Amino acid sequence: MALPEFKIAQLRHFVWVAELKGFHTAAEKACRTQPAISLSIRDLENKLSTILFEKRNAKTSNTELTPFGQYFLPKAKELIAHHDNVAQDMALMSEHKTGHLRLASVPSIACRMLPELLSKFIADVPELHISFYDDNSEAVLRKVEKQQVDIGIASLPHGHEHADITFTPIWEDQLGVVCREDHPFAEMTELHWKELRKQRLIRNGTSRLLEDTEAEPLLSDSQFLISNMLSLIAMLEEGLGITTLPWFAFPKNNSKLRFIPLTTPKIVRHIGIVQLKNKSLSPAAEALANFILKNTNQKKTSDLNPE
Q1: How far apart are CA 11 and CA 72, in angstroms?
Q2: Domain 8-94: which topology?
Q3: Interatomic CA distance for residues 164 and 174, integer angstroms
Q4: What CATH number has the domain spanning 173-268?
Q5: Where do the domains of the chain lie?
Q6: pLDDT tens digit string along 203-242?
């Protein structure tokens, strides 16, 4: 059976018609005529031997996907993204650039460690292009597994199933309780997890560190879930409740909040470089990984003063 050979332009036209809900708006985006877009879509449908869009309904001006079109849409986007990544890399090479590095990191390291590290690293490779993404550990791991980034900086979840990932530990920090400066906990030097149970708790992306510990009941006790760090800090500053955070995730120089180490149980988070197993890194990615390992003082929370 002969496989269809897709043209990237046709895939783009298909995605634009689907997302913009019309051939006219897609034609404007593509700087083409509407008949040209219709012909492009028709040729793509011929290659697939099926239609992608429902017949126009006189009652609506929107263009709707067929069930096959709905299935094909994410596939087309994936092909376009892969093509664009390759094209971008090759364009940089052809312009005598040193390459394109894609890096993902958890926000705490992105804020505390990476600005200084990347500033020093880029000084030796001023032509290197870097795409940087910050997200929680699970999202970073998924980006590495899907090869959307070259390397990631994250922690591995307890009992993780990421068999294709190698992990090189670099940093570690301890979990603590974060509350407003006028909270009764603010003057304490350490806390037991049971002392938190009568408080209004806010769960966040790092709360998974409580799983499989004696403090796991705090997860079900939590009244709120806030995944965005900026929103979380704003809610804490307003006195909405308290939360648990690793030390590196605690905002530096924040005078409104306090960090109190959680000592029972003592939960330590290990953060490091994650990459695909049995897959070579690009020269730029390998250089950055080696640079981070060479230039990082492996700090622990026990070495830091929360004040």
Answers
A1: 10
A2: Arc Repressor Mutant, subunit A (1.10.10)
A3: 27
A4: 3.40.190.10
A5: 8-94, 100-170+270-301, 173-268
A6: 998 999 999 999 999 999 999 999 888 999 999 999 999 9
CA 153 – CA 168 distance, rounded (Å): 9
Q: Which residue has the higher pLDDT, 176 or 61?
A: 176
pLDDT of residue 298: 54
Say what the alpha-carbon torsion angle 292, 112, 202, 272 is, to the nearest 10 degrees: 10
Do domains 100-170+270-301 and 173-268 share one topology? The answer is: yes
pLDDT tens-digit map of 106-117: 999 999 999 999
Tell me the Ramachandran region of residue 90: left when phi exceeds 0, alpha when psi lies from -120 to 50, beta otherwise. alpha
pTM exceeds 0.70: no
Around 280, how many Cα atoms within 13 Å sit in the side-chain half-sphere?
A: 3
On the 0-12 / 13-18 / 19+ scale of CB atoms within 10 A, 253 is: exposed
217 SS3 class = helix
Residue 185 contacts by C-beta under 8 Å, 6 or more apart in sequence?
177, 179, 191, 195, 199, 242, 258, 260
User: Domain spanning 100-170+270-301: which CATH class is it, in words?
Assistant: alpha beta
